Amino acid sequence: MEDSAELESILPYLPLVIGSSRRLLWPSKVVEALEAMSRGPDHSLVNCGEVLSIAISDMRASLSLADPLALSAPLGYALFFDELMSGADSRKWFAEDIPKLANLLLRLPSLLEVHYQNSRAYGYGLRILGPQQPGMVLLSQELIGALLACSLFCLFPISNRGLKHLPTINFDQLFASLYDSYSESQENKVRCIICYFQRICLQMPTGSVSFERKLLSLEHHPWQSFLSYPYADFWTKSTIPLCPFQVHSSGLIEDHAIEALEVDFANKYLGGGALHRGCVQEEIRFMINPELIAGMLFLPSMADNEAIEIVGAERFSDYTG
Fold first, then answer.
1. Does this model's pTM top 0.85?
2. Does 83 qualify as catalytic in the annotation?
3. Annotated catalytic, 282?
4. In Å, how far are 79, 84, 210 from 187, measured between CA atoms?
5. Exposed e or buried b for every residue in 132-145, given b needs 16+ CB within 10 A?
6. Residue from 6, 142, 172, 264 carrying the catalytic annotation
């Protein structure tokens, strides 16, 4: 792979390394672990949540990830897959879905190679889209699936994410919270995530999802022809009439018309508490459309003059309540 500023910006936050041939790759011990899992539980012995958590710890050690996972994460994996999930569903998950996810992870380096080749002409490659830096990242749904599998296996480095104001991306806190303070809503959040993985293992979607950081200039000049960020009292003094709009007193935002713009203004960090204990508007949206979580990998917190627009994320689950 040719060196690029895009790859250099995101590489410290990926679990891959650059080999002697300048290609992205997994460390050899991780390849061995993933190949074993891809051959099924009879070969890998990964047949329950407790053993899965041990396999996760072993792979993290092979990646030299020094930062510990949430203390109760292994207990959360065991609780969900060994107790909360039915016996039949658990056996199917470890016999069919875990091997497919392992195969998908083995293909992550090649998926990224193709991604950077395809995005080179347009500048939509995976990179850190930092504060006050407008730009877009365009990811295939297959690549997003591989990235979220990294989250499930907690393989992303986290030591420098706080310095870049990047939100949580591994799923250890999600599972730890399930054990530490069980609630039905937290269990169902995990069920939504697992449903997503089961669906893509059954049939991988073939579309793309775009993530765009947008901003309004903080400086005001009378000669500017473009919009700038309004002063604090702009809205109270404005005499500009509103455009026509409709008000619906019932129903869910995500159930309204196709091509509608859905707005969430809950948190400066993309995803809010989706991977922790949060379970209101933003977190619910990220659970039923898990591809949104991929943006948490590379999109730092937003300032007052910034917004993030995501287009193309598929809905995989429904909910009540």
1. yes
2. no
3. yes
4. 10, 8, 29
5. eeebbbbbbbbbbb
6. 264
Helix (H, G, I), strand (E, B) or coil at 208: strand
User: Which of 142, 283, 291, 306 does the annotation list as catalytic?
Assistant: 283
Q: What is the rounded CA–CA span in Å between residue 68 and residue 56?
A: 12
The whole-angstrom distance between residue 284's C-alpha and the CA centroid of its chain comes to: 14
Task: Tell me which H or E stretch contains 236.
Answer: helix 234-237
φ, ψ dihedrals at 312, nearest 5°: 105, 0
Tens-digit pLDDT profile for residues 194-247: 999 999 999 999 999 999 999 988 776 665 556 677 777 787 888 889 888 888
The whole-angstrom separation of Cα 14 and Cα 108 is: 11
Q: What is the DSSP string of 253-301?
A: GGGS-TTPPP---S-SSTTTTTTTT--SHHHHHHHHSGGGGGGGGT---
Q: Which helix (H) or strand (E) holds 306?
A: strand 306-311
Catalytic residue among 212, 282, 291, 306: 282
Residue 283 annotated in active site = yes
Q: What is the pLDDT of residues 95-147, one digit of tens each?
A: 999 999 999 999 999 999 999 999 988 889 999 999 999 999 999 999 999 99
Cα(295)–Cα(128) distance, integer angstroms: 10
Read off the pLDDT of residues 254-269 as tens digits, 9 standing for 90 and up: 887 666 788 888 899 9
